[in-house]
Design a protein that fits this description.
The protein is of the alpha+beta class. It is built from eight helices and four strands; from the N terminus they run H-H-H-H-H-E-E-H-E-E-H-H.
């Protein structure tokens, strides 16, 4: 699988423009606070995209590089969830938020489990298995796949090997981790999701601009300065 970085950057740029426009015309009491937080969020997302692209350009397979990649993807996933919550009111429980924010819930939930295993809490990661049952798993190690050592443990092509254990057992077992199968689908889901987010932000902009268009201008014409400032302010909101 491949990542279309040109499409990603294009969609990201359009989304940023729409979000900044929404911040500009927002009339909510906490508009300034939300705008400051959002600008920082967008900066973090942009830097994370650059770091992800750098990861694939370097093509350096190591556990540290894998952690670096997963951290940056998680930053973007969290950022998208926050923007949806702050500007579109999408909150609630984690699974429900992910379902409403992303084009493929299962891909993001699977990634969140991987992130929990590798970065957040390798011991006591709780997840739902293929049967929908809650399970706890311990991650003992994750390392680049070595065909000499791991070839007899893992029977499929992969990039990394996860050594794991369950609380009801004292025996380790091994699972493959593939960049193509486990990571790139997450990034492509993010790219698709950015387009949906942009469309939803655009709808909010249309509603607000429509409301402004219906309002009568209240200009202070007592002085030229006040008149110019008043018309400028209204121009920015209706632009």
């Amino acid at each position: 699988m491949i990542i279309d970085y040109d499409l990603w950057w294009e969609r990201h740029a359009v989304c940023v423009d729409k979000i900044q426009r929404l911040c500009e015309i927002s009339t909510s009491k906490d508009a300034k606070k939300r705008a400051i937080k959002c600008n920082s969020n967008l900066c973090v997302i942009k830097n994370a995209i650059q770091d992800i692209q750098s990861f694939f350009d370097r093509n350096n397979q190591s556990t540290a590089e894998l952690c670096f990649l997963i951290r940056n993807i998680d930053v973007i996933v969290t950022g998208i969830i926050d923007i949806n919550n702050d500007f579109l009111g999408i909150g609630g429980k984690k699974e429900k938020r992910i379902e409403r924010c992303f084009t493929d819930k299962s891909v993001i939930l699977k990634f969140r489990t991987l992130r929990s295993l590798i970065l957040a809490h390798p011991v006591d990661t709780i997840y739902n298995n293929d049967k929908g049952e809650s399970e706890t798993v311990y991650l003992e190690d994750v390392r680049p796949f070595n065909p000499v050592i791991d070839g007899f443990l893992i029977k499929e092509a992969c990039d990394y090997v996860k050594r794991m254990c369950k609380p009801e057992s004292n025996r380790s077992y091994f699972e493959p981790l593939s960049i193509d199968k486990d990571i790139i689908p997450v990034i492509n889901t993010i790219i698709d999701t950015v387009a949906i987010l942009t469309n939803n932000i655009e709808k909010q902009i249309v509603v607000l601009e429509s409301d402004y268009a219906k309002q009568e201008l209240d200009l202070d014409m007592s002085s030229m300065e006040k008149y110019i400032m008043g018309t400028s302010k209204n121009h920015i909101k209706s632009a």
